[in-house]
């Protein structure tokens, strides 16, 4: 049995935990864009990543608080300590959720349901946060169960009852079914997971293509052979920032991108991971997203080299930004080397930029991330909307 543990409205729950005056009241975390909403605010239709003005229109009495990323990171690490005290087999998914393998603990810890109940109680007692846990025999179904069990709940899908639970659910519950795929399925009167299961693999492949068709056919029958894995290294390192809907000059967007590259490359050097592929992510006023990527000839963790590539990608997308308005910018580096080895070029002398990066890292590590800032970021705040996973 597998547990999927997912903290409820994580950022908002931390704010309500730390400020008793916010408990039981609608809370929005964010600036121009809602990064998190408490369940009291969600009851009015507020969702992420909705603009703050739209959220206020739906819930005028909501209390807006700025994000405190350091508080969320601290809370996340405390929760993951509880996870690892429960079982050594923990697979982080994001800052606020993870899969846990508990099948081998029956003799010493009891059934999966008993373990899940203790886990929820421990997170509440030690960290003061609500958490929902889904329990099932596959990772896919455990995650679906946790979603159905929210908020602050526990939902167990017993062996043998999986399809009875799964098939009445809407098609959007299948991983990989977004608005476009859902619309294509509903055009053919395929509304539930059970409908998908009855269509047949060949028909789904013809409708959606080989990969998507086989994938959805397998999930509709609860076929998910993936196991909970530990010790996996990230395939990419990135950061992004919600900009809100206010007007910003292109120079301001470039300044934010440069600050994000600073943050990403600092983490790369700390993890000893060099990368080759730089990806810039953009989200527009209509919530549509685009990405632009470029691969370098050799892996690097230099701030300057990655920043130059990122800025070039941003400038290539400038026509879209000018036409559609920008609400989020992000950057990620992938194709990471496993040991951080960087091949030197003749005459085998490290570039001066390596020394500058190392000096900046030492200052920030000793005195904090804000000890050194780019001049064009003075007076501006940078709030990443998706923090890094716990170590």
Q: What are its keywords?
A:
391 residues, 16 helices, 43% helix, DNA polymerase, domain 1, 12 strands, Dna Ligase, domain 1, globular, alpha+beta, 4-stranded antiparallel beta sheet, disordered C terminus
Describe the structure concisely for a colleague.
The protein is of the alpha+beta class and 391 residues long.
Characterise this structure.
- With 391 residues, the chain is α+β, with helices and mostly antiparallel strands.
- Among the domains are: 167-220, Orthogonal Bundle (DNA polymerase, domain 1), CATH 1.10.150; 236-377, 2-Layer Sandwich (Dna Ligase, domain 1).
- It has 16 helices and twelve strands.
- It has helices at 10-18, 39-42, 52-58, 69-86, 106-109, 112-127, 139-149, 162-166, 179-187, 193-199, 201-208, 210-220, 250-271, 303-316, 318-324, 352-367, and strands spanning 2-7, 27-30, 34-37, 63-65, 90-94, 97-101, 131-136, 154-156, 236-242, 275-284, 289-300, 326-336.
- The strands form three sheets. It has a five-stranded mixed beta sheet. Strands 9-12-10-11 form a four-stranded antiparallel beta sheet. It has a three-stranded mixed beta sheet with strand order 3-2-4.
- Helix 11 crosses helix 12 (210-220) and helix 13 (250-271) packs antiparallel against helix 14 (303-316).
- The longest helix has 22 residues, at 250-271.
- The protein starts with a strand and ends in a 24-residue tail after the last helix.
- Mean pLDDT is 85; it is low at 385-391.
- It comes from Actinoplanes cyaneus.
């Amino acid at each position: 049995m597998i547990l999927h543990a997912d903290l409820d409205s994580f950022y908002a729950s931390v704010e309500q935990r730390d400020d008793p005056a916010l408990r039981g009241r609608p809370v929005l975390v964010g600036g121009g864009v809602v990064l998190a909403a408490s369940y009291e605010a969600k009851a009015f239709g507020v969702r992420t990543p909705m603009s703050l003005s739209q959220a206020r229109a739906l819930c005028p009495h909501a209390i807006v608080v700025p994000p405190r990323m350091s508080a969320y990171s601290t809370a996340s690490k405390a929760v993951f300590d509880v996870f690892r005290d429960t079982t050594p087999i923990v697979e982080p998914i994001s800052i606020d959720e993870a899969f846990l393998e508990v099948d081998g603990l029956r003799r010493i810890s009891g059934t999966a349901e008993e373990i899940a109940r203790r886990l929820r109680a421990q997170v509440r007692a030690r960290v003061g946060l609500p958490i929902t846990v889904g329990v099932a025999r596959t990772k896919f179904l455990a995650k679906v169960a946790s979603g159905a069990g929210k908020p602050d709940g526990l939902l167990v899908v017993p062996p043998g009852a999986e399809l009875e639970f799964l098939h009445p659910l809407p098609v959007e519950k299948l991983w990989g079914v977004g608005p476009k795929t859902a619309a294509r399925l509903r055009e053919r009167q395929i509304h539930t997971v059970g409908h998908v299961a009855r269509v047949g693999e060949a028909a789904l492949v013809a409708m959606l293509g080989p990969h998507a068709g086989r994938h959805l056919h397998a999930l509709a029958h609860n076929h998910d052979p993936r196991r909970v894995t530990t010790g996996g290294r990230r395939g990419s390192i990135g950061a992004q920032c919600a900009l809100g809907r206010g007007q910003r000059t292109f120079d301001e967007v470039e300044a934010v991108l440069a600050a994000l590259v600073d943050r990403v490359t600092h983490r790369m050097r700390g993890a000893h991971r060099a990368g080759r592929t730089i990806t810039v992510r953009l989200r527009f006023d209509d919530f549509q997203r685009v990405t632009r990527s470029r691969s370098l000839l050799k892996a690097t963790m230099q701030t300057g080299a990655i920043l130059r590539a990122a800025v070039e990608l941003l400038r290539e997308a400038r026509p879209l930004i000018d036409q559609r308005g920008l609400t989020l910018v992000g950057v990620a580096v992938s194709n990471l080397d496993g040991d951080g080895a960087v091949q030197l070029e003749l005459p085998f002398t490290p570039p001066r930029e390596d020394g500058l990066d190392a000096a900046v890292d030492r200052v920030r590590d000793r005195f904090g991330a804000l000890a050194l800032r780019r001049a064009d970021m003075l007076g501006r705040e940078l709030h990443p909307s998706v923090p890094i996973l716990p170590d």
